[in-house]
């Protein structure tokens, strides 16, 4: 018995009226995006459910893992669709379904019949009871348990008949595009791709900004960031990756500011530039992979100083996580192996041996004064020379 269709379950809480259409349309759009490499599928909504039906050959496991990357889906039910509603025929199909899906019959079951087609000659109760007894007749080892069955065989009688028993877990969250857009500061590390994934999971579309410093950082380091953006886009949909040449700003900071403050000052300019592209592209917030205390630039003193330049909210979903917890998610979303490739995302000459851990905003601002003759031009050049790469899996 081959599954050609999936019934998609999604959390419906709080999505009534107009929001419901927006939610479902965004869900369907993202499902199409996820499934486009897997095969040809028809996706339609019907009476508060979404069905996916294969129009040709496809790989079952690939289809399931594609759907498991669509935020908003809570469950994926591999489904058999029958045109013929005749009860005897359906009983045969249901018995075959149970036989093939559950080779070990030492289990309990329940039939959950739902008659949405009111012209059908049996009501839901009659259908369930009669189908249950047909299945019992066919397999004597099975037992009925109406409260906690091992197998819940659902049969929905609609325009056609939909039969399923298994619910594979979806990723949860909200469909991409239902909660606006945010700009991810994406480096080649482990944390920022995870941060992007976590915010995308709330339905937020993602753009990204990467700061590189050629020739101090290599072309290969940039490619690694493009690869990471691709991995994130498997969940988040297409990403406009802004690649900003940061070399001259970094050199100016290196030349004119105290070396133990380099990272903080550099981070402040990164945030300013990211915010510029955020506004330009309609993003309402920034996202970083920062986590309290992970490195010197992420003490709360220094986070506060970095934050001070931002006029929009900065989302830091990794903020309270241990490194291992972030790594676990990176592995789950398949960014980890790419993140640990050994290409520096920032040349070591720009990293002080003893960076300030308790930065003081007044002092940092005073240090930044040394840049005042050059920084506006340098920022302008960096912004104007941006390369925008449309990244899509
Ligand atoms: P990650 O593993 O995400 O790179 P990290 O542990 O290396 O983070 P930092 O280098 O201090 O930490 O960076 C903190 C955050 O600042 C990153 O998560 C990212 O959001 C942003 N960031 C750092 N470097 C860059 C860069 N070159 N381009 C864009 N964003 C950056
Ligand atoms: Mg980093």
Alpha carbon gap, first and last residue:
31 Å
For CATH, the homologous superfamily of the largest domain is named as HUPs
Heteromolecules bound:
adenosine-5'-triphosphate, magnesium ion
Total helical segments: 13
Q: Please, how many domains? A: 2
Question: Element order, helices and strands?
Answer: EHEEHEHEHEEEEEHEHEHHEHEHHHHE
C-alpha geometry: elongated
Largest sheet: 9 strands, mixed
Percent helix, as a range, is: 25-40%
| Beta-strand percentage range | 15-25%
Overall CATH class of the largest domain: Alpha Beta
Structural overview:
With about 400 residues, the chain is an alpha/beta fold. It folds into two domains: about 5-170, VC0802-like; about 180-390, HUPs (Rossmann fold), CATH 3.40.50. The chain has helices spanning about 15-35, 60-65, 85-100, 125-140, 190-200, 220-235, 245-255, 260-280, 300-305, 325-330, 335-340, 360-370, 375-385; strands at about 5-10, 40-45, 50-55, 75-80, 110-115, 145, 150-155, 160-165, 170, 180-185, 205-210, 240-245, 285, 315, 385-390. The strands form two sheets. Strands 1, 2, 3, 4, 5, 6, 7, 8 and 9 form a nine-stranded mixed β-sheet that branches. Helix 3 (about 85-100) packs across helix 4, helix 5 packs parallel to helix 6 (about 220-235) and helix 8 packs across helix 9 (about 300-305). It is elongated, with a radius of gyration of 27 Å. Magnesium ion (MG) binds next to loops.
């Amino acid at each position: 018995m081959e599954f050609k269709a999936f019934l998609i379950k999604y959390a419906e809480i709080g999505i009534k009226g107009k929001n419901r259409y927006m939610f479902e349309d965004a869900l369907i759009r993202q499902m199409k995006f996820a499934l486009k490499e897997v095969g040809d599928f028809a996706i339609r909504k019907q009476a508060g459910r979404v069905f996916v039906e294969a129009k040709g050959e496809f790989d079952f496991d690939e289809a399931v893992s594609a759907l498991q990357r669509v935020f908003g889906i809570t469950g994926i039910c591999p489904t058999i669709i029958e045109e013929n509603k005749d009860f005897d025929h359906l009983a045969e199909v249901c018995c075959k379904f149970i036989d093939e899906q559950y080779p070990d019959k030492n289990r309990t079951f329940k039939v959950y019949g739902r008659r949405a087609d009111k012209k059908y000659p049996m009501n839901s109760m009659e259908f369930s009871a009669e189908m249950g007894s047909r299945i019992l007749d066919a397999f004597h080892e099975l037992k009925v348990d109406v409260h906690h069955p091992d197998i819940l065989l659902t049969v929905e009688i609609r325009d056609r008949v939909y039969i399923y028993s298994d619910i594979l877990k979806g990723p949860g969250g909200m469909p991409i595009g239902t909660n606006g857009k945010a700009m991810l500061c994406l480096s080649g590390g482990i944390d920022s791709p995870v941060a992007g994934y976590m915010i995308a999971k709330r339905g937020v579309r993602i753009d990204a900004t990467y700061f590189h410093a050629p020739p101090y950082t290599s072309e290969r380091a940039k490619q690694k960031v493009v690869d990471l953006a691709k991995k994130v886009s498997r969940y988040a949909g297409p990403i406009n990756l802004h690649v900003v040449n940061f070399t001259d700003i970094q050199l100016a900071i290196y030349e004119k500011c105290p070396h133990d403050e380099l990272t903080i000052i550099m981070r402040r300019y990164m945030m300013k530039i990211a915010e510029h592209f955020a506004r330009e592209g309609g993003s309402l917030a920034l996202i970083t992979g920062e986590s309290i205390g992970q490195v010197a630039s992420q003490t709360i003193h220094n986070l506060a100083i970095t934050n001070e330049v931002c006029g929009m909210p900065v989302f830091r979903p990794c903020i309270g996580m241990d490194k291992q917890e972030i790594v676990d998610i990176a592995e789950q979303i398949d960014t980890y192996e790419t993140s640990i490739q050994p290409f520096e995302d920032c040349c070591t000459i720009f990293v002080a041996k003893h960076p300030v851990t308790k930065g003081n905003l007044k002092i940092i601002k005073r240090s930044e004064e040394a840049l005042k003759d050059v920084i506006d031009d340098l920022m302008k050049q960096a912004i104007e020379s941006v390369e925008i790469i449309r990244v899509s899996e």
